Amino acid sequence: MTHHATLPMPGPGQWAAGDAPPPDAGRQDDGHGGPLPRLMPARPAPAGLTEHLTRFGAPPYRGAPRRLIGDVEAAGLTGRGGAAFPTHRKLAAMAGRGPAPVVIGNGAEGEPASSKDKSLLWYSPHLVLDGLQLAAEAVGSATIGLYIHRNPRLYERLEAAIAERAAAGLDAARVELIEAPHRFLAGEESALAGRISGGPALPRFKPPRASQRGVAGRRTLVQNVETLAHLALIARYGPGWFRSAGTPDEPGSMLATLHQADGRMGVVETALGTPIAELLRLPAPAVLVGGYHGAWLPGAQAELLPLTNAALRPLGAAVGAGVLAALPGDRCGLAETARVVRYLALESAGQCGPCFNGLPRIAGALAELAGPWPRPQVQADLQRWSGLVAGRGACHHPDGTVRLVRSALQVFAAEIGHHAHGSCTGTTSRPFLPLPAEPPLDDTDWE
Ligand SMILES: Cc1cc2nc3c(=O)[nH]c(=O)nc-3n(C[C@H](O)[C@H](O)[C@H](O)COP(=O)(O)O)c2cc1C
Ligand code: SF4
């Protein structure tokens, strides 16, 4: 039984001009009682307001704050931005006593291996805008922003969608569009708050969290754009409908960005709990789960696992924002990891000593390990430096980077043995995991 629906996805920054429907477009049963895709149009095409309202009807405003929160709690919706935090708890904290908060939809998607938020915003902008408005109503806010990956065509499309809704008099509040810099960390919530307040997109030490003091010093609710789209559907169809996909503990569907070993990339909407083997074409020597702050798993192990945090967390991995990549048999996993870690080290915001000094050392040592005849102490150095940077930053960048490095040392242990003897199982050095062509090195790019 099929658990997911495949959507065509133009690469980051390469939006398809024609929006032609894919050969396999059409709803499919998700294997758990509900049709997928829920969030994306079944036939990808510009989802104008008329088509959106025909498919979903008007956003079901409740007429007062808080009324939606019980449904979100019963649905068991968790954040799709990476941490899977229960959404109702954030809404309830914001709807409590205090000045009205700012509400921000987070579509920065700084992770180079992820395209699901760009796809969602491109194909279903009105669902995200419904979710933003409904979340704002739920917490009693009329100050709304949408923070998006920098891309002129995406910006224009969203600007047009916002104008369409204003002309139709659909919503109570106006939505401001803000572009995120092309940085890995731009979507971290304190970096987001800094950028939207008019400063650089730099992470800050917490507390205060954005929920306490965020945009312009105001309490700020930050939700991933996919979370908001799910919320817009829960408001319409209720918690029981939402739970008809997924597992009891991790309900609903999610968007995932898949990198197949043959180089093909796509965004799918799938039920939580779907076997990874149904999403990736396996076998593969190793599978990267959760993106560049995620973890490698041996391919044979990943092949047996469902896409849930319950299954992945005991192995040091997590669903995260839904990136899955199957390492091709002709690539060296150490070399792939070394390229990514070099990129991550360059993306350090340079504010915290252990991160700023430690990540380049780790990247250098990993590059040595990925080459022939590394010095014998390199692996021990890597372990030691990883221990020194983990948990020592204003944000989770060092922790996420170290998670990736440690998983590579484990999963590619046999490969490390080959390199120690001057050989490598990789037969091509062509890069597999996507990275920005030229990582921006200019500090002004934070803004
Ligand atoms: C380094 C780093 C980068 C992040 N980048 C993003 C991002 O691009 N988009 C996003 O929605 N959340 C990102 N997050 C998570 C946000 O900080 C925040 O938790 C999230 O937007 C909350 O939304 P959610 O609860 O709906 O997932 C990032 C977190 C970290 C630590
Ligand atoms: S931990 Fe690293 S990336 Fe995060 S704020 Fe500090 S220096 Fe920047």
Helix share bin: 25-40%
Provide the spatial order of strands within the biggest beta sheet: 1-9-8-12-10-11
Q: Name the overall outline.
A: globular
The ligands found in this model are: flavin mononucleotide, iron/sulfur cluster
SS-based class: alpha/beta
Number of H/I helices: 16
Please give the alpha-carbon distance between the first and last residues.
47 Å
Strand content: 5-15%
Number of individual domains? 3
Using only C-alpha atoms, the radius of gyration works out to 21 Å
SSE inventory with pairings:
Elements: E1 4-7, E2 28-29, E3 35-36, H1 49-56, H2 69-75, H3 87-95, E4 102-107, H4 116-123, H5 125-139, E5 143-149, H6 152-168, E6 175-180, H7 189-196, E7 220-224, H8 225-243, E8 253-259, E9 265-271, H9 276-279, E10 286-289, E11 295-298, H10 299-302, H11 309-312, E12 323-326, H12 333-346, H13 353-369, H14 378-389, H15 397-411, H16 413-420
Parallel strand pairs: 4-5, 4-7, 5-6, 8-12
Antiparallel strand pairs: 1-9, 2-3, 8-9, 10-11, 10-12
Describe this structure in words.
The protein has three domains: 13-243, Rossmann fold (3-Layer(aba) Sandwich), CATH 3.40.50.11540; 253-326, Ubiquitin-like (UB roll) (Roll); 333-431, de novo design (two linked rop proteins) (Up-down Bundle). 38% of the residues lie in helices and 13% in strands. The protein has helices at 49-56, 69-75, 87-95, 116-123, 125-139, 152-168, 189-196, 225-243, 276-279, 299-302, 309-312, 333-346, 353-369, 378-389, 397-411, 413-420; strands spanning 4-7, 28-29, 35-36, 102-107, 143-149, 175-180, 220-224, 253-259, 265-271, 286-289, 295-298, 323-326. Strands 1-9-8-12-10-11 form a six-stranded mixed β-sheet. A hairpin with a 5-residue loop joins strand 8 (253-259) and strand 9 (265-271). Helix 5 packs across helix 8 and helix 14 (378-389) runs antiparallel to helix 15. The chain starts with a strand and ends in a 27-residue tail after the last helix. Mean pLDDT is 91; it is low at 7-33. Bound molecules: flavin mononucleotide and iron/sulfur cluster. Flavin mononucleotide is lined by residues 79-83, 85, 106, 108-110, 185, 187-189, 222-224, 227, 395-397.
